[in-house]
Amino acid sequence: MSANPRSTRTQRASRTGRATRRMLASAAGLATLGALVAAMPAGAQDAGRHHKPKPSRTVDVQLLSFNDLHGNLEPPAGSAGTVNETQPDGTRKAIPAGGVEYLATSLRDARDGNRYSVTAAAGDMVGGSPLMSGLFHDEPTIEALNQLDLDVSAVGNHEFDEGSAELARLQNGGCHPVEGCFEKGKKFKGADFPYLAANVTREKTGKPLLKPYTVWKKNGVKIGFVGVTLEGTPDIVTANGVKGLKFHDEIETVNKYAKELDRQGVKSIVALIHEGGSPASSSYNYDCDSPGAGDGISGPITDIAKGITPKVDALVTGHTHQAYACTIPDPAGKPRMVTSASSFGKVYTDTTLTYDRRTRDIVRTSVKSSKSVNHIVSRDQDKAADMTSLIGRWSTLAAPVANRPQGFISADINGRGSTAPEKPLGDLIADAQLEGLAPADKGGAQLAFMNPGGIRSDLVYKASSSEGDGVVTYGEAFTVQPFTNMMNVVDLTGAQLITALQQQVSGGNDASPKVLQVSRGFTYTLDMTQQGAARIDVASVKLNGVALDPAKTYRVAMNEFLAGGGDGFAVFKEHKNKLVGASDLDLFNAYLAANSSAAKPIAPPAADRITVVK
Question: What's the pTM?
Fold first, then answer.
């Protein structure tokens, strides 16, 4: 039906009339307002106007970082799970810390209210992991890091423990090539974050193994991350782990890619470096920039920091398992933050980077503009429910293996948690290797050496509520020795053994001695008042009370890592007549079973084989 023309005209007239009245009223109002404004005092007119505030030229970007998690999803046991905190009166307190349930809560709480927040890691997220992660080739840890919203990580030396192909699988996903998928109907997805390996190239092609850098972006803010591991990675990883790879200088590599990022217009750059130093204090809250602290930090990272281009605005480091937040001047003399967050998820670092939108760079005119603070991951906060679920799922899969009893101990036997050159757990492991490989048909070993870095934890008398006190389970034994290195028995002369002892405290090990753990019957004096090789009192070196004969050949047990010259023990590569035996973990468990019972548990060794003069 068509509209009534008269009705339509009436509606139009009505609308026109209403519009005219509104216009007249508005005009009257404006006239009145104009009169009022004219009567206002000078300056009052401007006060009545509303200006939209201009956006700030600078914004604060929160950088959260950690390092050396090593697959510790559950809270680390014993002294390996504590952090030293300096109290107001100067005393130190050991505080239980770590566990991914608490790390997740800490990071999420820290991000709350921060519009710009990025999370980065400095390598060794996996490798040397407790059984719950290590049994499944660290898939649980990668899954946890994804849920932690990790944005980027450098590779560490332990990312190469199982070789470059396995590292690529952790990055890209896919089920294990030998053991397949661990959960029915689920395919491993890989890391959501990029692993950076700027200084690792393939020998055949010269091309980077993984991405050398990445750029984090948000609302026009851009921060570049360059990731490197220590150049000496081949010295501390088995030969198979780094086969076909070449590791380059950290300073040259970071500078190269910082220049490349700068050409792309990325002026704000953070270096993730899996190399570190040692602060003057072991307390996580030590202020290494306080008056009288001096440099506050020593070790390889100091020279690296001094050589890295000023284009890099902050250094997140790791490897030494220390906690520090220090400033080290860059080559231009400007202060620059260098941080590390202990290990095993016990500490995280919160760094404020002041980003200038105009220059696109981090403001570093003062230390306050780039401030870093280490925070303890305490266990008195709420657990993250999603991490509890993740741990429960993988624990259920691992339980049939993890909970098998292996032996008994009468008290804590410290390894990783011991600060002494000779560690009680080191003695126990060396004794287990000697006993297992002493029979003639097993190699005829006369003594055994164990590298201290291979001892990943302590044996704890009261490990958990799920087992009896003093019971050592397969899971605990695995946590202590997770690499399952194959054992070797080799021929070495007395002179070569003396050289090996000297290499503990000279050459690359001069600043940070790597004291070999020795089996029963092997004794000597380590004089730390001397320098370099002179720290070994050659006349004191004895086997079963008899001075070592430089010309005599001895049968020596050691793992394949040491036999390959790992940890700077180049003389071990000169061995002859090698016999390959069982794995170090198998020998350790066999020793526990043969030498302990509930009625007669193993007591902590006296650790009296190496006499230390300070």
Answer: 0.86
CA distance 508 to 501: 13
H/E element, 229: strand 221-229
Per the CB < 8 A criterion, the answer to whether 601 and 410 are in contact is yes
Kindly state the tokens that stand for 221: 């803010």
Measure CA 308 to chain center: 21
For 60, half-sphere exposure in the C-beta direction (CA atoms, 13 angstrom radius) is 13
Examine the pLDDT at 19 and tell me if it is beyond 70. no
Spatial CA neighbour of 432 closest among 419, 421, 442? 442
Q: Are 124 and 156 in contact (CB under 8 A)?
A: yes
CA-to-CA distance for 474 and 479, rounded, in angstroms? Answer: 9
User: Using one digit for the tens of pLDDT, what is the confidence trace for 120-133?
Assistant: 999 999 999 999 99
Bridge-based pairing of strands 553-559 and 447-450 is parallel
Would you state the pLDDT for residue 511?
Answer: 84
Q: Which pLDDT belongs to residue 39? A: 43
The residues with which 170 forms a beta bridge, in sequence order, are none
Give the pairing type, strands 542-543 and 546-547.
Answer: antiparallel
The residue whose two tokens read 């009893």 is 405
**Pairing outcome for strands 314-317 and 269-274:** parallel
Instruction: List, for residues 582-604, the tens digit of each pLDDT value.
Output: 999 999 999 999 999 999 999 99
Question: Residues 6 or more apart from 133 whose CB is under 8 A from it?
Answer: 71, 72, 73, 126, 139, 140, 141, 394
In this structure, what are the phi and psi dihedrals at residue 190, rounded to the nearest 5 degrees? Answer: 85, 180
CA distance 55 to 76: 46
Nearest to 588 by CA among 435, 423, 380: 435
pLDDT of residue 37: 40
Is residue 155 within 8 A of residue 196, CB to CB? The reply is yes
283-342 pLDDT tens trace? 999 988 876 555 689 999 999 999 999 999 999 999 999 999 999 999 999 999 999 999
Q: Is 360 exposed, middle or buried (0-12, 13-18, 19+ CB in 10 A)?
A: middle
